[in-house]
Structures are given as C-alpha cells and as structure tokens.
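User: What would this chain look like folded?
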Amino acid sequence: MLFYKNLKYSEIILSLLYIIYGFRLSYYLYQREKSKSYIDHVKSEVDKSNEAGFIPKFLIWVSVALLYICQVSPLIFSIEAKKDDSKMTYIGIFVLIFGLLLEIEADNEKKNMKKINPHKFVSNGLYKIVRCPNYLGEMIIWTGSFLFGINIYNGYFQWIIALLGYIGIIYVMLGGARRIENRQNRMYGKDKEYQEYVKKTPIIIPLIPLYSVQKYEWIRG
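Assistant: Here's the prediction, encoded as structure tokens.
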C-alpha cells in the first residue's frame, strides 16, 4: 500500500498500523509457539491439526488469506476512491490504535502472569474486565478499520467485501473465546476461585452479561 502514489496522510497511517499489527502478531505467535506450557496445554489440538490432510489445510490457508484481504479492504477502497478524509476516517484510526494498545497490554499481562505461575488462570488487570481482553482488542482493531471506510464505501460490492471481513473476524474471535473457555473449563473447572471468576466476568465484551459461549456449537474457533 505504501508504494501507491499520492497517498493521503490517513492512508499512510493506516498502512503503517497494518504493518505494526502484522509484525506484533507474528512475534507474539513465534514466542507462544516456543512456550512449553502452551504446547502442553494445546497438545491434543496440535495433534488433531497435524492429522489433517493437505486439502483441508490448503482451504484454511486460502480462506484466512481472503479474510485478511476483506479486512484491509477499507484502505484499498480509500485509495481507489481518492476522496477527502472525513471525521470518521480519523475516528477509525483512533479506535484501531486503542484496540492495538489494548491487545498488546493484554498479551503482556498474560505472559507476565504465566511466568509467575504457568498453571493458574489469569484474572488480574484487564482480565478483571473480560476473560479474553486480547480478543476484545482484536475486535476493536478491526472495528476501527471498518469505520475508516464508512464514508468511502461505494456500492453493494464494497460494502459486502468490507462487511465480510468485519463480520468474519468477529466470528473468529468469538470462536477463539469459545475454544479458550472449553480449555479453561477442562483445566480449572473444579477450582472454586475460577468458578467465581467466570460467574462475574464477561467472556469477551465488557458490561454485557455474556459469561459463556460454550453452548453455542455453531461458533467454531
């Protein structure tokens, strides 16, 4: 994106934010895959993934790539439209930055807590507000990206592509929250402190009394 000519400042900023997001996510995943405690916790899921054949893995790779294209489509449409920026443009950028900082802080809090006690669930800091603040941050990031293009989308095609990206990532985050909930219930379900924690702490969205998504089998992580 950065090599397009005559980019507006807002488009340069959003391009850089996408790059920062990508590097941060890649580094986080790299560090996580080196963690023995993480591998021990998800060993059965890893084994199940390794058993999948080439075609399912290829289809997942393609679908994820297409999802990311839809997610960054607001920037593509903005470059094509060549319209002046609106207030919504910078509101979207602000929301994205807030979500990115929230996600970084949530990941750091979890990493630091796991260093102290790798076998205890995290319930401090942002995890007092929701049980999956990192996923909340991810949802806010792509909410900001979608808002960036609100005054830019032109015609049904652009709206559909942008909405597919936004709704798609929200679904993925809900699926991730459900997967974590299932894993934590297996690990800490008999812990009374954990039982009290899940009763009073929403799983992913603050102030909304949604404490579990385990029963919603149509949500897949």
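The chain has a mean pLDDT of 90. If you want, I can go into more detail on any region.
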